[in-house]
Each structure stands twice: as structure tokens, then as C-alpha cells.
Amino acid sequence: EQKEEVKLLLQERRDILNELFQPTEANLAQFCKLNDELYRLTMALNERVKRIVSKKDILLDSNDFDDDYELEGTLKFVFNDETSISRLPDDDYYGSNFAVMIKTLYEVYVDYGIESIVTINEHHGPLDDGVSWYEYPFNRFPEFKDFIICYAVHDLTDHKLYSIPDLLRLNDFWSEVEFKVQSITNQDGQHYDFQ
Q: Per-residue pLDDT tens for 31-42?
């Protein structure tokens, strides 16, 4: 209940900061830089996942153990310390302690990635296909219309409670790929057949 109450307050804060946001030349340049980097990280993560998929037969080399596998690439924002937040010239304008509030948002979403590329049975790929995620909250601003907004930016500002001003200050990102090999047997030691 307390977590849901905190989320409602964070949603109210997000909406207020989005109302206050000004698409200045400096803010648009910062957005472009961050959007490009998150897109680059997503594509790099996707390529790394594809390379592991191409080598899965080498990795799955034990008929006695290897019944199935899961492969997941995840991109996350992480809050390590105050350097995880960029200071920008208009910080005071918003009246928000961005370090404290973004750390709070990070704690709410610590178990959730921005972008998650899952590969099971060879199905994989990012949600970026060259079409802009020009949706809430950016569709209120015509200045964003010509940007190809990447899915990671969309996820942070629509599926999560980061405002546009929060987004522009995020400075630490973590990418990881996890490969799990699974052995699934019954009491008699017989392996489950996934074919």
C-alpha cells in the first residue's frame, strides 16, 4: 500500500514537471544526445544477444544436462551515487531535488529494465524499428515531432514515472546479457522433451 501511495505521488510529480518542461535549444540538444545513446546501447545489446544465439550450440554441449535455455539482454538506468545524475543549468527552475527524487524512482523500478531483449526459441529483437515513439509525454511538444524517439526513452517516460526533466539528467546505464542453461527432470531422472 505504501509503495502504491508513493507511486501516485511520483506520478503527480512527473505530471507537474512535464507541465513545467520547456523545450529550449539546450534541452533539445540534451534530449538528442541521450536518445541517441540509449538507441546505441539498445542496438549494441541486441547485437550481443544475437552473437550469443549464433554460438548457442557451442554453449549447449552437454546432452546429460542441457534441456533448454533462456537468453535475456537487459538495459537499465542505475543510481550509484550523485554522479549518476547530470546537473543542468535549469535545475533550480524545477524546484526538485533531482538526485533524491531520481534515486527514489530508481528504487521503485530497481527490478525492471528499460529495454529487455528476450530470446527463447530464436525469437528476439528490440522494439525499435525506425518508427518514432512520439507518444506521451513528447506528443505535447511539436519540437519533438522530428526526432526518432527510441523505445528506451518511451519506456522511462511513459511506462515508468520519470518526467522529461528527470530523463535529461540520467547519466548511468547498465547493460547485461544473461544466458541460462536449464536441466529439467522428473523423479526418475528422465529429461523433459522440449522438441
A: 999 999 999 999
The contacts of residue 39 (CB under 8 Å, 6+ apart) are: 128, 148, 150, 152
What is the DSSP track for 40-109?
Answer: HHHHHHHHHHHHHHHTHHHH---TTT-SEEEEEEEEEE---SGGGB---TTHHHHT--HHHHHHHHHHHT
Residue 163 to residue 105: CA distance in whole angstroms: 10
> Cell 529495454 belongs to which residue?
115
- CA 70 – CA 59 distance, rounded (Å): 12
**Distance between CA 179 and CA 95 in Å, rounded?**
43
118, 122, 130, 85: which is closest to 103 by C-alpha? 85
- Which pLDDT belongs to residue 121? 47
What whole-number distance in Å separates Cα of residue 170 and Cα of residue 40? 15
Considering the chain, what is the average pLDDT of its residues? 86
> What cell does 173 get?
546505464
Cα–Cα distance, 180 to 161 (Å, whole number): 31
Q: How far apart are CA 51 and CA 186, in angstroms?
A: 33
Grouping H, G, I as helix, E, B as strand and the rest as coil, residue 116 is strand
Mean pLDDT of 168-184: 85
